[in-house]
Design a protein that fits this description.
513 residues, alpha/beta, Rossmann fold, 17% strand, elongated, binds adenosine-5'-triphosphate, binds magnesium ion, hydrolase, ATP-binding, nucleotide-binding, ATP binding, AAA_N_dom
């Protein structure tokens, strides 16, 4: 009888040393064994163990199949576990949360947490496999992250059905609640990385623009807001009519009339992310498609100054017999386009894009455009007449919105925003002047900005009146100059053909203040 404890002790010692040896051999094996052999060995060990274990494991991988996009299931599980693990997990990682005011905790790699659902216990682990790859001819390790849940086989039906449904649903809701909206850009200095890095880089989207603060005709504003809200609530409708849930907006008008501001207001209204697509930095149509695939739903894809981004204007060039003024205008236009292109590229050259019009049309409504859903595509331009009609036809660009010079109604919105004024004796003078000269909302806004702490509302209104009067004088001077030039031309040549030029110049004058 005395022998029993010592036999037991011996047995434990033996088991302990066997286990230690086994672990040591396993560690050496993992360290030095070639990757392929190790994978092979692990695969069969798992299969053998699977026969005896009463537990079932399900893995949710970050990238599946074509590996172009993070799996939605993984993203939902990540959010679900982030919210539920912070109370039980021992190793957590912290990231800045919404509005940069708090830290959001989530489980760290290789951490385990337990969840309970209708009496069943579920164990989750965050893990990754590291495998070698040679994407660009050099050795590089690829990390494949995944979550694995383990549960007893008697709960198989409930876990694979109701529980996973609950995880995905709650995960998606958490994501919407915690979502920091992002402003993405396709960086021009993008280098092809391994698959797990995305083609977009982003920062937190914090633009303060709102429709309420925009200087727009009230009826226009109401119409645009209703259109956007209806779109965002029309999932069922789009599905019923068999149309992809996306909508194209073309914003056009002179510089400083609020096109970019409106995009920010749209994003804020609908709580969407913004993908600011720099077309000149896109290598070719294939890259354009990859960028599209990586965009998520609830987003606005923006191409600003579409007329400067690509040569989509070729079809519209006139042939032969151009008037001098036309040539000048074209030259100036070319310079303007080049300057804008350069500023878009951050002055760093580039512009070697081989994206074609057909590539862009496919981007907007080709088969690939159906991935994701709930997306707005917005183009902006200063010269709508220069765009190819195919690009902006209804169905592609469903809604065309003209943003024009500031109206008196628009001015009143700005006066309320900037000066907290709803009425003032000087308003009548401003109304009168605004009927005579065009002024952009950007210029009105600039005049209404107090320039020193001592500037009061009246001083700002006077500043606007001066700006309007100056524009009026300049416009009158230009008209006088042009009249002089044209009467000289008529005198020199005496041909009625020149009258067209006069008209052309007059139109130009009325276009710009
Ligand atoms: N309709 C508007 N309502 C309120 N503010 C405006 C409006 N339009 C312009 N602004 C003001 O003018 C500034 C410039 O406007 P914005 O950048 O939106 O013009 P844009 O039409 O995009 O010009 P561009 O064609 O040169 O890109 C904004 O920062 C905003 O303060
Ligand atoms: Mg703009």
């Amino acid at each position: 009888m005395e022998m029993v404890p010592s036999t037991m002790a011996d047995m434990w010692t033996k088991m302990g040393s066997t286990l230690a040896s086994f672990m040591f051999i396993w560690a050496v094996f993992r360290q030095y064994c070639p990757y392929e052999l190790r994978r092979y060995f692990e695969k069969y060990t798992h299969t053998i163990m699977g026969y005896f274990s009463p537990y079932i494991k399900i893995s949710v991988h970050e990238f599946t199949g074509d590996r172009l996009k993070r799996s939605e299931a993984y993203v939902a599980v990540e959010a679900y576990l982030s919210a539920n693990s912070s109370k039980t997990a021992k190793r957590l990682k912290a990231e800045m949360g919404k509005d940069s005011t708090n830290l959001v905790l989530s489980m760290d790699e290789y951490e385990k947490v337990t969840d309970e659902f209708r009496g069943a216990k579920i164990w989750w682990v965050a893990s990754k496999t590291v495998s070698p790859s040679r994407p660009m001819g050099y050795y590089q390790e690829q990390e494949k992250r995944y979550y694995r849940l383990t549960f007893h086989k008697r709960y198989r039906e409930m876990i694979t059905g109701a529980y996973l449904e609950h995880v995905v649903k709650e995960g998606k809701e958490i994501r919407v609640r915690n979502r920091q909206r992002k402003l993405y850009t396709n960086s021009p200095c993008y280098k092809w990385p391994s698959y797990k890095q995305t083609m977009w880089s982003h920062i937190v989207f914090e633009h303060p623009a709102r429709f309420e603060t925009m200087a727009l005709e009230p009826s226009n504003k109401k119409d645009i807001i209703e259109d956007l809200v209806t779109f965002s609530q029309s999932r069922e409708f789009y599905s019923r009519i068999g149309k992809v849930w996306k909508r194209g907006y073309l914003l056009y008008g002179p510089p400083g009339t609020g096109k970019s501001t409106m995009i920010a207001a749209m994003a804020n209204l609908l709580n969407y992310d913004v993908y600011d697509l720099e077309l000149t930095a896109v290598k070719d149509n294939t890259e354009l498609r990859k960028l599209l695939i990586e965009t998520t739903s609830k987003s606005i894809i923006v191409i600003e100054d579409i007329d400067c981004s690509l040569d989509l204007t070729g079809q519209r060039k006139k042939k032969g017999g151009k008037a001098v003024a036309d040539e000048d205008k074209e030259k100036m236009e070319k310079e303007r386009r080049e300057a804008k292109e350069e500023s878009n590229n951050g002055g760093g050259g580039g512009g070697s894009s081989r994206v074609t019009l057909s590539g862009l049309l496919n981007f907007i409504d080709g088969l690939w455009s159906a991935c994701g859903g709930e997306r707005l595509i917005v183009f902006t331009t200063n010269y709508v007449e220069k765009l190819d009609p195919a690009l902006i036809r209804r169905g592609r660009m469903d809604k065309h919105i003209e943003l024009s010079y500031c109206s008196f109604e628009g001015f009143k919105v700005l006066a309320k925003n900037y000066l907290q004024l709803e009425t003032h004796p000087l308003f009548d003078t401003i109304d009168g002047l605004m009927k005579e000269v065009d002024i952009t909302p950007a210029d009105v806004a600039e005049s209404l900005m107090p320039k020193s702490p001592l500037d009061n509302a009246e001083k700002c209104l006077w500043s606007l009146i001066h700006a309007l009067e100056e524009s009026k004088e300049e416009a009158a001077k230009k008209v006088a100059e042009q009249e002089e030039t044209s009467s000289k031309q008529i005198k020199d040549h005496g041909t009625p053909a020149m009258e067209d030029d006069v008209k052309h110049h007059e139109n130009n004058v009325s276009e710009k203040p």
